[in-house]
Structure formats: C-alpha cells, structure tokens
Amino acid sequence: MYGLKRDVNLSFLIGREVIQVAIGVHHVIFHFEEDISISVGGEFEYSDDQGTVVWKPGASRAAANTVVLLGAKIESLASFENGTIVIHFSNGARLVIPDSSAEYESYQITRPGETIVV
Length: 118
Description:
A hairpin with a 5-residue loop joins β6 (74-79) and β7 (85-89). Helices cover 4% and strands 42% of the residues. The mean pLDDT is 94. The protein has a single domain (11-117), classed as Alpha-Beta Barrel (N-terminal domain of MutM-like DNA repair proteins), CATH 3.20.190. With 118 residues, the protein is mostly beta strands. The strands form two sheets. The protein has a five-stranded antiparallel sheet. The protein has a five-stranded antiparallel sheet with strand order 5-4-8-7-6.
C-alpha cells in the first residue's frame, strides 16, 4: 500500500531476538526485545530447512511454523522501495514480508517513538 521510503533505516532490527510470536486470525505479531515488534496483517513467506509456507490472514497452520523463531536473532535485513522486507535469522530461517495489499496496511514495524506503516 505505502511501500518504504528510500531513506528508511531499519538497522535497529539487526541483532534483535524474537521473544514472542503472537498468532491471531488476522495478524501475526513478532515481538522482539527492547519493545520492538513487526505486526503482519497482509501476508508473509516463511522459509527454513523444512520448506516454505505462505501465511495469509486465517492461515493459522502456516503461522504456527514461525514459533521456531523464538530465541532467534535477526542477522541481516534487506528492504526495498516496493515495501518488501527480507529478514534472515540466526537459526537459518527467513521471512519475506511484502507490501501485499493495495487497499490495506500490510505490516507495521514499531519501536518506542516510531511506527513504520506499510
């Protein structure tokens, strides 16, 4: 919907540990240390050594795969102007979160004092 501005700086996510994965009907929220979170309401692709699944609202089984991220840290991250972010974790897993909706918010990244809406 909004994409990402070219100058957005997401480096504050590097090294952050996943401390909670909250699975709801319409959102999956990844909580990190230091009161940082990524709330996904659009869709995401999760990959690990077991394969790849795509989560869309209502796909709780696909979201359940992401609980293995608990305790993992973000090792690297790439962001693109089209709104897609690609996150690589210390346990070898990967999340690809696109700006998947022209009508609604796809995801939010929140930290104290700042919310990035895509």
